[in-house]
Specification:
single chain, 37% helix, Arc Repressor Mutant, subunit A, flat, 3-stranded antiparallel sheet, mainly alpha
Length: 138
């Protein structure tokens, strides 16, 4: 029995890349532009609350009409507690910009920052063995 012959692929014609768009490469609406981050995180005194990535943020009220789009998005997302890292990922903003936005919301009392729920230390092994032996005797 002879093995089947493989068919050779014909080279596909290479398509030319699409023409560049007439828009400028930089602008206030382009992602990753430092000017846009400055407008989001701009604050008069530059003060920031002591926040870390696992700090839980909970909204206290609905977004007021005067809230910026980022602040309104945070207030809508935080109906249930979310960590600052999750908010940063959902809104696609760097952590430093998020801390400024959250600080502003904390000072206006629109959100509450909570420490993360810490797991209790594991129980002593001898206690667990005593409970296990007690359950086995039942």
């Amino acid at each position: 029995m002879t093995p089947p012959r493989r068919k050779r692929r014909r080279p596909q014609p290479v398509a030319s890349p699409p023409p560049p768009s007439p828009e400028p490469a930089s602008g206030p609406d382009k992602p990753g532009n430092p000017e846009r981050l400055y407008t989001i995180a701009g604050s008069a005194d530059g003060a920031r609350a002591e926040l870390d990535l696992v700090t839980l943020i909970v909204a206290r009220s609905a977004p007021p009409p005067s809230a910026s789009p980022e602040e309104a998005a945070v207030l809508r997302l935080c109906a249930a507690p979310l960590s600052l890292a999750e908010l940063s990922a959902y809104l696609q903003l760097p952590f430093s910009a998020m801390t400024v936005v959250i600080t502003k919301l904390i000072t206006t009392e629109l959100v509450q920052a909570r420490a993360p729920i810490v797991r209790q230390a594991v129980a002593d092994r001898s206690l667990l063995e005593a409970v296990m032996h007690g359950l086995q005797k039942l």
